[in-house]
Here is the input.
Amino acid sequence: MYDRMQSFSKEDLTMIHASSMKVLEQTGVIFNDHNALRLFKDNGFKIDGEKVHFSEKDILKALDTAPSSFELHARNPGKNLSIGGDSWAYVPTYGAPFVISREGEKRPGTMHDYDNICKLVQTSEHINMNGYKLVEPSDVATRTAYLDMLFSNIILCDKPSMGSTDTIEAAEDSIAMASIVFGGREKLKEKPVIVGLINPLSPLQFAEEMAGSILVYAHNRQPIIIANMIMAGTSGPISLPGLLTLMNAEILAGLTLAQLAGPGTPVIYGSTSCPMNLKTGAATIGSPETYMINSATAQLARFYNLPCRTGGSLTDSLVPDAQALAEGALCLSTSIRAGANIVLHSCGMIGTYIGISLEKWLIDEELCGMVRDMMNPMDINEESIDLEAITSIGVGGNYLTHPTTLANCRTAFYENNLYNKSDHFKWTANGSKRVDEVASDTLLKRLAEFEKPPIDPDIETALSDFITKAKKRH
Here is the structure.
């Protein structure tokens, strides 16, 4: 296969690996959690205060037990997903505190917004996995908001989902709620059902809630994404090869902790690293360097035979405009072509993670469908070439009425649901609407037609009772 985007040689990847091993052995990584430090110490690691030093032997042993792929189970078994290899999952945006209108007006997110996003995920033909912090709701208590979000995830959507790692307690409650849905904790250890997102504190640290959440998920054999957001020039080297070395060291350190706590725990190798805007000090995710890092991340994941997570339709734009679609399309398509298996922020993210736009959510959803269709391989054989048809039409003929055209005209090509494919006359007759305006109309229709997926009433009651008791702890 030929691709003008850089493909690292084995020597390139080996050099990054070797450099990361030196960082892990000589500099080490701080873990701000006493249980994690105790686990490292019990397994013979060199500990200096809160700093852990790793040998290459330690890393390779951990990699040996981390699976290259796994099946992620959904509440609806028909929506289970394979994570790894050539398959991938589209996941919505994560962590946005604001909702931004298509005109650029910003307001705090609410649980109503959160529920609406769950409904969009459930009714989507392209987004096949739900996230966790779809938007940060400002109208519920901060300390217990994760319980409300997890409940909505489970009740309003029957696709695979993510859990909370906001605190160690939130991670434990995520596992407890998943066990209610899937038949108990022992059943969880037999099958992955909920994914936790772990973010290292670059450079070379894991905060208490992150290290502790690794232990919680790994003890229950539930998958974790270890994904750092290193900003080149501030929290990491300005040189991209140096950034990749630091990124790799952090991910492998977290993976090793996960395998010590629960050998065989699925770990997804990930990053959302990007350059810093040296004029403003802000992250710039809609940049060529971000796409290069995404490609490199996927290649490093394959080097270690691990599933990969990268960014999706990322943009620095504050409205769903041409900039947003251009940056998002470049980022999303690069991630998929490079081999990412979980694409977080696949739809809806706007303004460098500051907000979510529901109109952009639908615009990006269409983009996700187009990219997936673009990846479908051609089946080249005698039937698909159909020399008989070419010969029978001959020179200057017309294929429009040929039986093969008539038989396949409704299914041969990708059918857009949102983007305009009409001529100027029809477009004008329908109100001359831009795609963001069409998205606004479609949004109302989608939400109005939502039907709650079926769930066992006893499970829903058990979840409600659990949340009531959990909130009383706070």
